């Protein structure tokens, strides 16, 4: 049996009872996803992944993936007329997401937990669960387009440029692509809300979640609860001169220019390097923060390596535009790129995501520069 020819809101040939596990978060996007799939003729099984612990604080997990969101997801499933399951993924979430999030900050890196969640939980653990439940497909409310190109399935940017979420999906196992559906990928957000209103779904006007789901308040406060303060020096990258003090490298990120408490506060300085090994924060001027290229590890490709073009577009943050780059090296472990124009404050730990036009090619985790630091 082959995958459907397209996975949009209007399949040309509706499946005859094909089972699909629909990930429901209690938000409007996944609610409409479930409704559209049922309209298209799929046999839909709704499911929410439980991440919150029994001893959760009252201000944690309240934006999404919370007990309240689970209640709303179950109610929506009733409205749509599909069964609903709450799946326990607390241990996996702690092991794959929360633990590494803290570890990355301890190593002077800036992690993106949403990438890890999609890679190691949603499109790994959830695909396995779908098979156990007799479902051929997994569907989510991501704004991503699935494109069936002959014998292969590709992920392309969603039609709503403000909501495109391909950046978070570069780590999806390639062999899972044929079994993932994105019914809202060809819709814009206002239309998704209109569909929810038309169907009377209780999530139609629910606000969007903008924060990391397991972090209540500021990231710095959350990190401070898990990593002890450790006073150290802030040094000038050009000379090694001590220009300030800090409470721990984990509280800073590359490019930052405020909130450092430098001795000479009239000078504009950016953080250009974090060194937890010596507990040193290095600062410099704007040009010191420019990267001519990057190296990435833990690569995952959604195309054959031989198919990877020499010239690609790379996106180094979710809310930035992709930029042109030349591929200097690429293998199964990682890749090295040369930017066509230098880029400011490319943060180690974030994702370098590769594109060819709208098509998602893969990505990797950004490594730090090999810097020549002044002798201490």
- Unreliable segments (pLDDT under 50, ≥5 consecutive)? 1-14
Envelope shape: globular
Number of helices: 7
CATH class of the largest domain: Alpha Beta
CATH architecture assignment name of the largest domain: 3-Layer(aba) Sandwich
- Largest sheet, order of strands side by side? 12-15-14-13-16-17
Average pLDDT figure: 89
Distance between the termini: 65 Å
- Return the CATH topology of the largest domain: Rossmann fold
The total tally of domains equals 3
Helix content: 10-25%
Strand content: 25-35%
Question: What does this molecule look like?
Answer:
The chain has 376 residues and is α/β, with parallel strands linked by helices. It folds into 3 domains: 19-198, Rossmann fold, CATH 3.40.50.620; 228-284, Adenine nucleotide alpha hydrolases-like domains (SH3 type barrels), CATH 2.30.30.280; 289-366, Elongation Factor Tu (Ef-tu), domain 3, CATH 2.40.30. Helix content is 21%, strand content 28%. The protein has 7 helices and 17 strands. The chain has helices at residues 28-39, 67-80, 90-106, 113-122, 125-132, 189-198, 219-226, and strands at residues 19-23, 43-50, 84-88, 137-139, 144-149, 152-157, 180-181, 232-236, 242-246, 270-275, 280-284, 290-301, 311-315, 323-330, 334-344, 351-356, 359-366. The protein has a 6-stranded antiparallel β-barrel with strand order 12-15-14-13-16-17. Helix 1 crosses helix 6 (189-198). The radius of gyration is 22 Å and the shape is globular. Residues 1-14 have low confidence and may be disordered. Residues 292-366 form the tRNA-specific 2-thiouridylase MnmA-like C-terminal domain. ATP binds at residues 23-30, 49, 141. Its EC number is 2.8.1.13. It is found in: Cytoplasm. Its main location: cytoplasm.
